[in-house]
Write a structure and sequence with these properties.
Strand content: 15-25%
Radius of gyration: 27 Å
Largest sheet: 8 strands, mixed
Distance between the termini: 92 Å
Strand order of the largest sheet: 1-4-3-2-5-8-7-9
Length: 477
């Protein structure tokens, strides 16, 4: 009997010792099951990250505690910020632009970045933006010297409430010692990127209630002219559609746009997993967790990386976005609309992808005479220019060989949805393309539909690469 009790005691001790590792494994498994629950959401890069991160289980005690503390993701993080320059206005703006900056060993581009934001914006655009700079370095004398320089050069923007400079005190930061060395990164690299995640978390947390949208930038960026107007065109064209993150640069965390209502959750997310991986990787996971399946990146890019030296050890970093255009003045408006086609769609190259600045396209099987591709606007509109391109550089035969462009009015309800009952032909496709100028001078009515009609059957498949529409601006603008 005594031997049996000893055996039971050993089993109880074993269960206690095994509980913490098991919780760590279980939490890791549930986290990544949530991230990858639908295989369609998984990018190849994410699959590689999953294999790597699964080799580094989460610390169970730390993360169970963190999950408990951060269970209310709709609330802000309790941080008392130091206001180094400016104070928030009571009125919400359209866009907050957030920058986090630390002392660099080589080079400093923050002043140029702030200058580019303001210089590339019109007077009307400036009324709709606020720039928040988080000086996230623990060297307070460096912060104070930089604030003095910012105040001298941008005093009128600070007074107008367009520029705020803040600092989150060091005591609010989690421990940056003994961090996990995921991906075999050196210890100082892990410390740098972990702190950077917290820097951005505190910045996002501060900006939650300042505007309708939030743009994430780095502190070594230059902007395209009238970037806000271009950005608003894209946002307006996606009215009624679901999105979490729109991308206006393909580099790192430059030019990433969010709804401000999502900032508390994103701030908590970065803080919760600050030591797991770099910020740009966490942003990919956050987007997937909120069920945005596709990358929504728009061309031309509105922001360009201009620094030559990284904030990490002053290492060279000459990355450039080759899709950037300094003067992106001809970005289409593409008013909100519903898209219909009776052309057989290939895989997931659906019709909506042609009517977007995203680097994707519609791809359909060989069309027949009479097949159509219709854009039905949510509201009737005046259009000044229409430009449509078919085929791609690597599939030059997949163009519309014979087709017409039409515009319509008099919407009626049908079994297949709303359709226009009256159309006028604007022109014929030539070599797979068509462009019509001064549409508003040629058409007397406000346009409710734009239709592409196939006028001759073809053996080749059809790619509609882009449909670009420019609206007529009201005289007041």
């Amino acid at each position: 009997m005594r031997l049996m009790w000893k055996s039971l005691d050993k089993m109880r001790c074993f269960r206690k010792r095994a509980t913490i590792p098991f919780l760590g494994f279980l939490l890791t498994f549930l986290l990544f099951l949530n991230l990858y629950i639908e295989d369609g959401y998984v990018l190849e890069e994410d699959k590689r990250l999953l294999r790597e991160t699964s080799a580094h289980p989460l610390n169970s005690e730390r993360y169970v505690h963190t999950f408990r503390d951060l269970s209310n993701f709709s609330g802000t993080i309790n941080v008392t910020y130091r206001y180094l320059a400016g104070t928030p206005l009571n009125r919400k703006k359209y866009l907050t632009i957030g920058l986090a900056s630390v002392k660099r060993k080589r080079g400093n581009y923050l002043m140029e970045t702030i200058k580019s934001i303001f210089d590339q914006s019109s007077y009307d655009e400036l009324k709709e933006i606020v720039v928040v700079v988080h000086l996230a370095d623990s060297d307070l004398s460096w912060c104070e010297n930089l604030v003095q320089e910012i105040t001298r050069k941008f005093a009128h923007h600070i007074i107008a409430g367009r520029l705020l400079v803040i600092h989150a005190p060091e005591e609010y930061y989690p421990s940056l010692d003994g961090l996990k060395r995921n991906y075999n990164d050196p210890e100082d690299r892990v410390r740098f990127r972990s702190k950077q995640n917290v820097d951005y978390a505190f910045l996002l947390n501060f900006c939650t209630n300042l505007s309708q949208f939030y743009m994430m930038l780095e502190d070594d960026v230059r902007c395209s002219r009238n970037f806000l107007t271009s950005l608003k065109k894209v946002v307006n064209s996606r009215e009624g559609s679901y999105w979490v993150m729109l991308e206006f640069s393909k580099l790192g965390y430059i030019g990433k746009l969010y709804h401000s209502k999502d900032l508390p959750r994103l701030a908590h997310f970065l803080l919760m997993f600050y030591q797991e991986m770099p910020c740009d990787w966490l942003l990919i996971h956050f987007r997937g967790l909120l069920a945005q399946r596709d990358v929504l990146r728009f061309k031309p890019s509105l922001f360009q990386h201009m620094g030559y030296y990284s904030s990490y050890k002053g290492a060279e970093n000459k990355l450039k976005d080759d899709d950037f255009e300094e003067d992106s003045v001809d970005i289409p408006d593409n008013p909100p609309a519903t898209i219909y086609t009776n052309i057989n769609v290939f895989e997931n190259y659906d019709a909506t992808k042609a009517y977007s600045s995203v680097d994707e396209y519609f791809w359909g099987k060989p069309p027949s005479t009479g097949d159509f591709f219709v854009i039905v606007f949510n509201k009737s509109t005046k259009i000044s220019k229409i430009k449509i391109a078919t085929g791609t550089d690597d599939r030059q035969n997949d163009i519309l060989h014979r087709g017409a462009l039409e515009v319509g009015e008099k919407l009626v309800g049908t079994k297949k949805g709303r359709q226009c009952s009256s159309y006028i032909t604007l022109g014929e496709f030539k070599n797979g393309n068509i462009e019509v100028q001064d549409v508003d001078h040629k058409i007397a009515f406000d346009i409710e539909c734009v239709r592409i009609v196939v006028t001759a059957s073809q053996k080749e498949w059809l790619i509609i690469r882009s449909i670009s529409l420019w609206t007529t601006q009201p005289p007041s603008q």
